[in-house]
Design goal:
Length: 572
């Protein structure tokens, strides 16, 4: 596999629109040929109605069968809070065109498989990543939000530990992982002020860093040696007026301060010290020092595009001439700030200071990330290892981006509970768009499958996506996917549209136990009933991906089929 065709496209922050347009046409052509509405495959009853215990057994048998296959390297590029339709493949939205240029992901789509319904086990950073690490559903991990860990995980086994110890992989991680801070080998900080118990996450090498706000706010004396904070503290940058300032002070001025009065300007805060660019640099550093002749796994945890949404001058200028679609049912929200203000040139000839918020700057972060991901993959190619490397790009969850008056995560709506997912590599079909529901929980099982791990740890329910990636329908597939967070649970299943129409569609059942579980609901949704313990909502995700048309009153038959798939004690 050669990426030389993209070498001129992404030179950290520089994207050529001509190639992006060409790749867009190729991607659109593939969709027209393979995914016309109304021509989806017919139902295979044996595929969707295996009992759960039989499904887990089938997965174990399939992984055992793959144990003697060639073992590829695995590169997992993970973005934080990435909305599913902001992936460069969706050129139109309900509120207007989406002029997002992501040529690396165009190439991923052309050379691999693109999943349009990839759901996360929980749409919140810590819980989603804990599910992935432990290979378990949300209610089985004991990690209910970013702060509350309700069980002691120190003796639990992670998929990373299985890769390292059972498959003899060199396992690496860098960036904002949102994992347990006190890893035995790679603690996030040098000191442990609360004497928390330590555990082995399963990494052979790691460079761990914090999220955007914690890097700015947390005191150095309490959180010593966190990688990104330490880097910023150790360098000096110049301001627009030529005076020197500590890089972390400039960073703090941009992310939690008042901008220029606190040291944040176009000269002091550039991509050389940007958090996502730092993580890219650490990923390449890990690749440089890995041992030769051994299969490897690396998870690159980018902090973007998670808020605060901040663009450098260069990033902000790259998106300001394009028009960005409004949120659904919320016109004018998250407008592009650099389009509504007047700016003067600074001493370096730059027009804009760094910009914060706005859908346009969310796009700027994504386009920068696209270039950074390409540079990592290009480095793997230059090492001579890309032909034997599976590359996976996904988010830990989505982002509502102001739809129906709500921004952020933690909600059951498609924009928050799902994420883009692209996979390419040896043995993976090219140019395929998979429209059925899958779970990012199963990325761990996919890694173990390709690595030849013959058995999982007790309690793991992660499975493998290899049946889809290799298009081998003899392999088992998860019969439905689930997600949840605090006040709600949901289950999504692909099934016949109706008894009369065998064409497959995806139905999503939501069970909310309080009005908090309906935050961001469309105006068409029935309000939470007073005095009732639950509220049920049903959507046809395939025909209504924006969750605007609740159909629970129309399809009691679908509700009856999906209710038993919810966790025990939810709406039943």
């Amino acid at each position: 596999m050669k990426l030389s065709s993209l070498a001129a496209v992404a030179v950290v922050g520089t994207l050529l629109p001509t190639l992006a347009s060409s790749q867009e046409e190729q991607s659109s052509s593939l969709r027209r040929k393979d995914n016309e509405r109304g021509q989806r495959r017919q139902l295979n009853l044996n595929q969707f109605h295996d009992p759960r215990s039989e499904f887990v057994k089938q997965q174990s048998d399939a992984i055992q069968h793959n144990a003697n296959s060639a073992r590829p390297n695995i590169l997992f590029l993970l973005l934080d809070q990435w909305r599913p339709d902001w992936d460069g493949q969706h050129k139109d939205t309900r509120t207007g065109p989406l002029p997002l240029n992501m040529p690396f992901l165009d190439e991923m789509s052309r050379r691999g498989t693109h999943f349009t319904q990839a759901y996360v086990p929980s749409p919140f950073c810590g819980p989603s990543r804990a599910c992935l690490a432990f290979g378990k559903e949300y209610d089985e991990t004991g990690v209910m939000d970013n702060k509350r860990w309700s069980v002691d995980h120190t003796q639990w086994t992670t998929v990373y530990k299985l890769l390292r110890d059972d498959a003899n992989y060199h396992t690496m991680s860098c960036g904002k992982d949102d994992f347990y801070e006190w890893d035995y080998n790679f603690p996030k900080y040098a000191n442990n002020p609360n004497n928390m118990p330590v555990m082995d996450l399963g990494f052979s090498d790691a460079i761990r860093s914090d999220g955007k706000v914690r890097v700015a706010k947390d005191a150095d004396e309490l959180f010593k040696n966190e990688a990104y904070r330490t880097y910023l503290n150790g360098i000096t940058v110049k301001k627009d007026d030529g005076t020197d300032i500590n890089a972390r002070q400039a960073y703090k001025g941009c992310f939690i301060g008042k901008g220029a009065p606190d040291g944040c300007d176009a000269t002091s805060f550039q991509n050389e010290i940007y958090p996502d660019d730092f993580v890219r640099d650490k990923a390449i550093e890990l690749l440089h020092r890995k041992p030769a002749g051994k299969p490897w796994f690396m998870q690159v945890n980018f902090p973007g595009p998670h808020p605060p949404i901040v663009s450098t001058s260069r990033m902000a200028a790259s998106v300001m001439e394009r028009q960005w679609p409004d949120p659904i049912n919320n016109p004018g929200f998250m407008r592009c700030p650099q389009q509504t203000q007047k700016f003067k040139l600074n001493n370096q000839g730059q027009i804009l200071p760094p910009q914060i918020d706005g859908r346009c700057n969310y796009a700027a972060e994504l386009e920068n990330l696209d270039a950074l991901m390409f540079s990592i993959v290009k480095h793997v190619e230059e090492m001579g290892e890309l032909d034997n490397t599976i590359v996976i790009v996904a988010g830990d969850h989505g982002e509502n981006l102001g739809d129906n008056g709500a921004s952020g995560k933690g909600m059951p709506w498609h924009a928050a509970v799902s994420t883009p997912l692209f996979i390419m590599g040896p043995g993976i079909r090219h140019g395929r768009v998979h429209e059925g529901p899958v779970s990012t929980l199963d990325l761990g099982g996919t890694w173990l499958d390709y690595a030849g791990v013959s058995s999982m740890a007790p309690g793991m329910t992660t499975s493998s996506l290899r049946s889809i990636l290799a298009q081998d329908m003899s392999l088992p597939r998860r019969p439905h996917v689930s997600s949840g967070y605090l006040e709600w649970r949901t289950v999504i299943k692909e099934m016949p549209t109706s008894p009369e129409d065998p064409t497959l569609t995806s139905y999503k059942l939501i069970c909310a136990k309080s009005p908090k579980g309906m935050k961001g609901a469309p105006k068409s949704a029935t309000p939470f009933p007073a005095g009732e313990p639950w509220h049920i909502m049903l959507f046809d995700v395939t025909r209504d991906p924006d969750d605007l048309l609740p159909i629970e009153q129309l399809r009691p038959d679908v509700i009856a089929e999906l209710l038993p798939l919810l966790p025990e004690g939810w709406c039943r």
